[in-house]
C-alpha cells in the first residue's frame, strides 16, 4: 500500500503552514527562565580567577552556576570521558563554557553573561594538526591497519607518487540552533525537551551531571530543525546546562544558543591532514599505498575514536588495496572538540583514496575514470577490504558504467578539452567519482532499536520508536512500514514524538541506520500484535490462525471478513492486549575492535556522480554546470524522501569541499561563526543542470524490505565536484599537471592553485618519486 | 522608554506597547503575538528563516525594528492560507517536497510569495534560484524549492489570466 511509495513527509502540510512546532515554538511556562553561557576567550589557559559578581548582579539574573555547582559528575563525554560540562580549573578552547546564567529574559541572560571578569593564565596552545603532530599530541592512541606488504609493494612498483591533502572541517549549521528546555516536575523529576538525535544519551548525561536516576528524567523531541550529526552528542551539553539551572532554581529553563555562540561552542566535522605514498603500474592499478590520516579532534576524545576508525575503514572507498597501510593519528589541539557529521569520518577517508586515484591518472595521462575501473573491487581475491571484510556483489563497475553512459561522460570530456583549448580565461573540468559506504555503527552494541505500538479499539494505531526526526523522513518511513504490516492506510498510524518514556535505552539516530533499525523494531511489534489478533479472529471464525489475512484495511479469516477496527474491539472484548513492544538487533556483525578486523558493516551503500564545473581563471570563482547522480537505495521505502536525501547530501557535501571555510585566527578563535562569513550553499549554487537517478540493479540489501540506508552516503557524491574543479585547474597548465588543491576549494584556493601551476609548482613539484 | 506601535498582522489590526525600542519585528511576532511560524535562524539577516512580507515586500524580520513598522501591513506564514485553502506557493512546496527539516520553510515560502509578487523571475529556473538565494536551506532541498516556485508561478499566472483554477 504505502510501502515503497513516494509519499510526502509526514509534517509536510504543517511545515508549509508554519504549524510544525520546534522547541523554541512551544508555549512557554509562565515562570520560564532563559539561559546563556559564558565562554572562554582563550584557547588554553588556567582559570586564575572567575569573578561572576557583576553577572549575578545584572538585571534579571536569577541564578549563576559554575562547575562547583554540579551535584554529579562534571563530564558530558559520550564515547569517552573528557568533556566537562563547565570548565573548572582550565580551559582548552576559545569558546569553551565556563559558567551559565539564568535570567528573566533572553536579553538579560546574554547581557549578563558578558559581564564576567575572568583572569586567565595562558598556557601554550596547539591550534593545528601540524602543531599536534609535531608535539605528538593525541586524544587517543594511534591505530594502524595493514593488509599485504605495502612497503615492499610500493618499493617494487614501476611508478611512485607521494603527496599531501588538507581537508577542512565543516560546521553543521543546522538552521535550528542547539536548544533545550528543562521543566522541573513534582517529586524532583525533570521533563526535558531537547533538540537531540539521541534522547537516551541526554537522559544519561543529565543523570550523570545531576546525580539523578534515569527514571526521573524524561527526554522528548518531536523534530529537529536539522542536525546532521551536530545533535548526536552535543545536544547533551545544552540540555544539561538547562537542567542544572532548573535544578538550582526549581523553575523551568530554556537554553537556546544564538548562532555565533553555537558555532563557537560546538564541535564540527573533523578536518584531516592526509599524507600518501602510492606505487602503481602502467594502467594505474594500485600496487601498494601508504596513508597517514591525521584527524583534527580538538581538545577531547569525544566521538573522535569512532570517527577516525571510520575514516580508516573508508580509505579504500570502492577500490581493492592489496597492499595497504593506513595509520591514523587522533590529534589533540586546543580547539573545540570535533564530533559526528554526516559521514562520520568516512568522507575524509574516501577523499584520501580519490585524491590518490586522481594523482595517478594525471601522472600517467590516463582518464581518471579508467584508473578507477582498474582498481574497483572485483572477484576473489580482489574483494577483501583492508579490515578483512568481503565486498560481495559490488555494483560499482556496472553502476559507474551506466552513469558514464547516461551522463555522456566520454563525449563531454572531449568537448571540455575542445572548450578549454579555445578559452584561456574560463576552464571546465569533469570528474566521475564513486561511493561505497559501510552501513552500521562500528560500535556493535549501538545496532539495536526498540519500538512501541498500540492498537486502539477504533482501529487506529499509535507508533513510537527510538528514532528521531531531523528532516530525513524517518518517522514517515517507519509509519509506512507499520501501515504496510497491518495493511492499513498510512493515516491510521499516528506518528508521535520520540521520548525516553515511551521507548528506553535507544541508540542515536545516526550512521544512516534510523529506518533500518527502527523500522525493523516497529515491524516486529506489529507482527506480534498481528499474531495475537489473528488468533482471536481464528478462534472467532473457526479457522486456523495461519489462514487469517490482513489486507486492505480489513481482516479475512476463511470466508469471513471483518474490519480491522472490528477485530480490535473483538480482541478487547476477549481481553487480549493490543499493545506490544518490538525489538531489533542487526544480525551478522562480527567485528573485533581491538584488531580492527572482521565485519563491522551489515552491508554497503553505493552510488556515483559525474560533475562538470567551470572556473574563472582570473577570479577563482566557479559554478557547477551539471551534475548527474546515480545512487543505490536498494528498494527504497520512500523514493520521494530518498531523492531529497540524495540531492541534499550532494549539496551539503559540495559545500564542505568548496565554500564552507572554518577559519581560526592565531589566537585560536573561530572567525567564521555566522552565515555572513561561513558560506553554506545557497539555492543559486545548485548545479545548473541537476539529474538524479536511482540505481535499478537488483537489491541484495539484507536490511528491512531490501531498502538501503540513505542518510549519509549521498554526501560523498560531491567528491565529484572537488575533482572536477581540480580537473579544470589542471587545464590551465597541461593535461598531466597535478595541482596542489586543498579543501575547501574556495575561489581563493583555486586561484592559488592556478598561480602555483603557472609558476611550475603544484603537487607534482614535491611529490614525484623517481621510479 | 515605552512606545506604542500599531500595525496590521495577517489582516488583524494590533496595537502594542514596547518597553524597549530595540525589539525586532521577529521578536514581536514570536514573543508578543505568539506567531511562531516565523523562525529565528541566525538573527542577523543572513539566513532568511525570518522572512515575512512588509507591505507586500519580503524582508528579514530579524533586521526590522518593530518600532519602525508603525502603520505597516505584515503578512506571515500563518496568514497566507485563505479560508482553509492553501496559498499556491504552500501547495507547491508540499507537492514538490520543497523541504526536509522544515525549519527554513516558512521563510522560503514567504520569500517565494514575495519573489513571485516582484514579477522578475518568470519561468526561468536560474532567476528563481538567484531570487531565492537569500533563504538558506541546510538540508539542501533546493531542487524541490525551485520546482515549487516555478509551479506556483505558473498557477498564479494562470489565475491572473483566468485560465487556471
Question: CATH fold name of the largest domain in chain B, please?
Answer: Ubiquitin-like (UB roll)
- Number of helices, counting only DSSP H or I runs of 4 residues or more of chain A: 20
Query: CA-to-CA gap between the ends of chain B?
Result: 51 Å
Question: What fold name goes in the CATH topology slot of the largest domain in chain A?
Answer: Aldehyde Oxidoreductase, domain 4
Could you give the count of β-strands of chain A? 30
Describe the main β-sheet of chain A briefly.
8 strands, mixed
Quaternary structure state of the chains depicted: heterodimer
Rg on CA atoms of chain A, Å? 27 Å
Relative helix content of chain A: 25-40%
Give, in spatial order, the strands making up the sheet with the most strands of chain A. 3-5-1-12-9-10-11-20
How many domains is the backbone of chain B divided into? 2
Portion of residues in helices of chain B? Answer: 25-40%
> What is the CATH level 1 assignment of the largest domain in chain B?
Alpha Beta
What integer is the average pLDDT of chain B? Answer: 95
Largest interface: A-B, 60 and 54 residues
Q: Give average pLDDT of chain A, whole number.
A: 96
What would the principal axes of the Cα set say about the shape of chain A? globular
Explain this structure to me?
The complex is a heterodimer of chains A (771) and B (165). Chain A has 771 residues and is of the alpha+beta class. Chain A folds into 3 domains: 12-124 and 178-256, Aldehyde oxidase/xanthine dehydrogenase, a/b hammerhead (Aldehyde Oxidoreductase, domain 3, Alpha-Beta Complex); 272-442 and 594-764, Aldehyde oxidase/xanthine dehydrogenase, molybdopterin binding domain (Aldehyde Oxidoreductase, domain 4), CATH 3.30.365; 448-585, Aldehyde oxidase/xanthine dehydrogenase, molybdopterin binding domain (Aldehyde Oxidoreductase, domain 4), CATH 3.30.365.10. Chain A is 30% helix and 25% strand. In chain A, the strands form 7 sheets. Chain A has an 8-stranded mixed sheet with strand order 3-5-1-12-9-10-11-20, sandwiched between helices. Chain A has a 6-stranded mixed sheet with strand order 7-15-14-13-8-30, sandwiched between helices. In chain A, strands 16-27-28-29 form a 4-stranded mixed sheet, with helices on both faces. Residues 764-771 of chain A have low confidence and may be disordered. In chain B, helix 2 (88-95) packs antiparallel against helix 5 (142-161) and helix 3 (105-118) packs across helix 5 (142-161). Chain B has a 5-stranded mixed sheet, covered by helices on one side. In chain B, 35% of the residues lie in helices and 15% in strands. The model of chain B has no long low-confidence stretch (mean pLDDT 95). Chain B has helices at 25-32, 88-95, 105-118, 125-131, 142-161; strands spanning 3-9, 12-18, 51-54, 57-60, 73-75. Chain B is globular. The chains are: A alpha+beta (771), B alpha+beta (165). Chains A and B meet through helix 1 and helix 17 of A and helix 2, helix 3, helix 4 and helix 5 of B.
Amino acid at each position: 500500500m504505502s510501502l515503497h511509495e513516494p509519499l510526502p513527509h509526514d509534517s509536510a502540510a504543517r511545515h508549509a503552514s508554519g504549524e510544525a512546532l520546534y522547541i523554541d515554538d512551544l508555549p512557554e511556562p509562565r515562570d520560564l527562565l532563559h539561559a546563556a553561557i559564558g565562554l572562554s576567550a582563550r584557547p588554553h589557559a588556567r582559570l586564575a580567577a572567575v569573578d561572576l559578581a557583576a553577572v549575578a548582579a545584572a538585571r534579571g539574573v536569577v541564578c549563576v552556576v559554575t562547575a562547583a555547582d554540579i551535584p554529579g559528575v562534571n563530564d558530558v563525554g559520550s564515547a569517552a570521558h573528557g568533556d566537562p560540562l563547565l570548565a573548572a580549573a582550565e580551559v582548552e578552547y576559545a569558546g569553551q563554557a565556563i559558567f551559565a546564567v539564568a535570567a528573566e529574559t533572553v536579553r538579560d541572560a546574554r547581557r549578563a553573561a558578558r559581564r564576567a571578569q575572568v583572569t586567565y593564565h595562558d598556557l601554550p596552545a596547539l591550534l593545528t594538526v601540524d602543531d599536534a603532530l609535531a608535539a605528538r599530541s593525541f586524544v587517543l592512541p594511534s591505530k594502524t591497519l595493514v593488509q599485504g606488504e605495502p612497503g615492499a609493494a610500493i618499493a617494487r612498483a614501476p611508478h611512485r607518487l607521494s603527496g599531501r591533502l588538507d581537508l577542512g572541517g565543516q560546521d553543521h549549521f543546522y538552521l535550528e540552533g542547539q536548544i533545550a528546555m528543562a521543566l522541573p516536575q513534582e517529586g524532583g523529576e525533570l521533563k526535558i525537551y531537547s533538540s537531540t538525535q539521541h534522547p537516551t544519551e541526554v537522559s544519561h548525561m543529565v543523570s550523570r551531571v545531576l546525580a539523578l536516576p534515569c527514571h526521573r528524567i524524561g527526554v522528548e523531541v518531536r523534530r529537529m530543525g536539522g542536525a546532521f550529526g551536530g545533535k548526536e552528542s552535543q545536544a547533551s551539553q545544552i540540555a544539561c546546562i538547562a537542567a542544572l539551572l532548573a535544578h538550582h532554581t526549581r523553575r523551568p529553563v530554556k537554553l537556546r544558543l544564538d548562532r555565533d555562540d553555537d558555532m563557537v561552542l560546538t564541535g564540527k566535522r573533523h578536518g584531516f591532514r592526509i599524507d600518501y605514498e602510492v606505487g602503481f603500474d602502467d594502467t594505474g592499478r594500485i600496487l601498494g599505498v601508504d596513508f597517514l590520516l591525521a584527524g583534527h579532534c580538538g581538545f577531547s576524545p569525544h566521538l573522535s575514536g569512532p570517527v577516525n576508525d571510520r575514516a580508516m575503514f573508508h580509505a579504500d572507498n570502492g577500490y581493492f588495496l592489496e597492499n595497504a597501510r593506513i595509520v591514523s593519528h587522533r590529534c589533540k589541539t586546543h580547539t573545540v572538540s570535533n564530533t559526528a557529521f554526516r559521514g562520520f569520518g568516512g568522507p575524509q577517508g574516501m577523499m584520501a583514496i580519490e585524491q590518490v586515484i586522481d594523482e595517478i591518472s594525471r601522472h600517467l595521462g590516463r582518464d581518471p575514470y579508467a584508473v578507477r575501473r582498474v582498481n574497483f573491487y572485483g572477484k576473489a581475491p580482489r574483494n577483501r577490504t583492508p579490515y578483512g571484510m568481503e565486498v560481495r556483489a559490488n555494483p560499482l563497475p556496472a553502476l559507474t558504467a551506466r552513469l558514464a553512459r547516461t551522463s555522456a561522460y566520454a563525449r563531454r570530456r572531449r568537448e571540455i578539452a575542445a572548450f578549454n583549448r579555445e578559452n584561456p580565461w574560463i576552464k571546465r573540468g569533469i570528474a566521475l567519482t564513486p561511493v561505497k559506504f559501510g552501513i552500521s555503527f562500528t560500535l556493535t552494541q549501538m545496532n539495536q532499536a526498540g519500538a512501541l505500538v498500540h492498537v486502539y479499539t477504533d482501529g487506529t494505531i499509535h507508533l513510537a520508536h527510538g528514532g528521531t526526526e531531523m528532516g530525513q523522513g524517518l518517522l514517515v518511513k517507519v509509519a509506512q512500514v507499520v501501515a504496510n504490516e497491518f495493511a492499513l492506510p498510512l493515516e491510521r498510524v499516528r506518528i508521535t514524538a520520540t521520548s525516553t518514556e515511551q521507548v528506553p535505552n535507544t541508540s542515536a539516530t545516526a550512521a544512516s541506520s534510523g529506518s533500518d533499525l527502527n523500522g525493523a523494531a516497529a515491524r516486529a511489534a506489529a507482527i506480534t500484535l498481528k499474531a495475537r489478533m489473528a488468533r482471536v479472529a481464528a478462534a472467532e471464525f473457526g479457522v486456523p490462525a495461519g489462514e487469517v489475512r490482513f489486507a486492505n484495511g480489513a481482516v479475512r479469516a476463511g470466508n469471513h471478513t471483518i474490519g480491522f477496527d472490528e477485530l480490535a474491539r473483538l480482541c478487547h472484548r476477549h481481553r487480549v492486549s493490543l499493545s506490544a513492544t518490538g525489538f531489533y538487533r542487526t544480525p551478522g556483525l562480527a567485528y573485533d575492535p581491538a584488531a580492527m578486523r572482521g565485519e563491522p558493516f551489515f552491508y554497503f551503500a553505493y552510488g556515483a556522480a559525474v560533475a562538470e564545473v567551470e572556473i574563472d581563471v582570473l577570479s577563482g570563482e566557479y559554478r557547477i554546470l551539471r551534475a548527474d547522480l546515480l545512487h543505490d537505495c536498494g528498494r527504497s521505502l520512500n523514493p520521494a524522501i530518498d531523492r531529497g536525501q540524495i540531492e541534499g547530501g550532494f549539496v551539503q557535501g559540495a559545500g564542505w569541499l568548496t565554500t564552507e571555510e572554518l577559519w581560526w585566527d592565531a589566537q585560536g578563535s573561530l572567525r567564521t561563526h555566522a552565515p555572513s562569513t561561513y558560506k553554506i550553499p545557497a539555492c543559486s549554487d545548485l548545479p545548473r543542470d541537476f539529474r538524479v537517478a536511482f540505481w535499478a540493479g537488483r537489491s541484495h540489501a539484507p536490511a528491512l524490505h531490501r531498502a538501503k540506508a540513505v542518510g549519509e552516503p549521498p554526501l560523498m557524491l560531491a567528491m565529484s565536484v572537488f575533482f572536477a574543479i581540480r580537473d579544470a585547474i589542471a587545464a590551465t597548465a597541461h593535461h598531466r599537471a597535478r595541482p596542489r588543491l586543498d579543501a575547501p576549494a574556495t575561489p581563493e584556493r583555486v586561484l592559488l592553485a592556478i598561480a602555483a601551476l603557472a609558476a611550475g609548482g603544484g603537487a607534482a613539484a614535491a611529490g614525484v618519486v623517481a621510479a | 522608554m515605552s512606545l506604542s506601535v500599531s500595525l496590521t498582522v495577517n489582516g488583524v489590526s494590533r496595537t502594542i506597547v514596547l518597553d524597549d525600542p530595540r525589539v525586532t519585528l521577529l521578536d514581536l511576532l514570536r514573543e508578543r503575538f505568539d506567531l511562531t511560524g516565523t523562525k529565528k535562524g541566525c538573527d542577523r539577516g543572513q539566513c532568511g528563516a525570518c522572512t515575512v512580507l512588509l507591505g507586500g515586500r519580503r524582508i528579514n524580520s530579524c533586521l526590522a525594528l518593530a518600532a519602525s513598522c508603525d502603520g505597516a501591513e505584515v503578512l506571515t506564514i500563518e496568514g497566507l492560507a485563505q479560508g482553509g485553502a492553501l496559498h499556491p506557493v504552500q501547495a507547491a512546496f508540499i507537492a514538490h517536497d520543497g523541504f526536509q527539516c522544515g525549519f527554513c520553510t516558512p521563510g522560503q515560502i514567504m520569500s517565494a510569495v514575495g519573489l513571485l509578487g516582484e514579477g522578475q523571475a518568470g519561468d526561468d529556473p536560474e532567476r528563481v534560484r538567484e531570487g531565492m538565494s537569500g533563504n538558506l536551506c541546510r538540508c539542501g532541498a533546493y531542487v524541490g524549492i525551485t520546482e515549487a516556485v516555478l509551479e506556483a508561478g505558473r498557477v498564479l499566472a494562470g489565475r491572473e489570466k483566468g485560465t487556471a483554477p
